Amino acid sequence: MARGAAVAVASAACCAVLAARRARRHAAVVVASAVSCAVPAPAGGQTATTGTPQALFTHQLATDPATAPDVRAALRARGAFVDPDITFADVTGDGRQDAIVRVDSGGAAGAIAVYAFSADAGTKLRAIYRNQHVDRALVAVNGTTLLVSTPRWSRGDDLCCPSKLLQRTLTWSARAKRLVVRSVDAVPA
To answer: For residues 29 and 181, which has the higher predicted lDDT (pLDDT)?
Structure first.
């Protein structure tokens, strides 16, 4: 019973963070999100198994001081989780696989953060891209190009159905030693 109470508290904390983010964007979305966050996510179903890529990246993000405090707190409280569907692709062009990781809220907000990790300059894993304040982020890789899409709602759009997506195109910059945004386009959803 104590675990269930902890999950409910973590879920409420995550919902509060997400609601605060959305308040800046669209009042109607806040109301819809608060209603969907009212049901706590199942305990254990979103816990990373030790020794998996999901567990590795959960630990990496939860202990990295550069991770946004709200994302780190949600991971530690199990109010959010590293999506087990991690994309491995060579986005740095060095012939080694890099990892594209999404942190998911488990609720209507979907993926709330996107990271790319690489060991491009040696063996130490490091974040080469961070987008830590998004909702419902989608990722795709095309060769060495990373595409990160987020919804852009217009007046009258339902939460499920934004009329546009904001698509960021990122590629590796050897000079900056990270992924950099090359273009941002609004595309039909």
So the answer is: 181
The structure tokens listed for 9 are 């508290």
- 65-69: long-range contacts, CB 8 A cutoff, minimum separation 24: 66/127, 66/130, 67/130, 67/132, 68/113, 68/132, 68/133
Alpha-carbon distance values, 175 to 118, 171, 172, 180 (Å) = 15, 12, 9, 10
First to last CA, the chain: 42
In the 8-state DSSP scheme, what is residue 66?
A: T
pLDDT digits (tens, 9 = 90+) for 126-138: 999 999 999 999 9
Spatial distance between the Cα atoms of 29 and 41, rounded to a whole number of angstroms: 20
This prediction has a pTM of 0.73
HSE value, Cβ hemisphere, 13 Å, CA-based, for 172 = 19
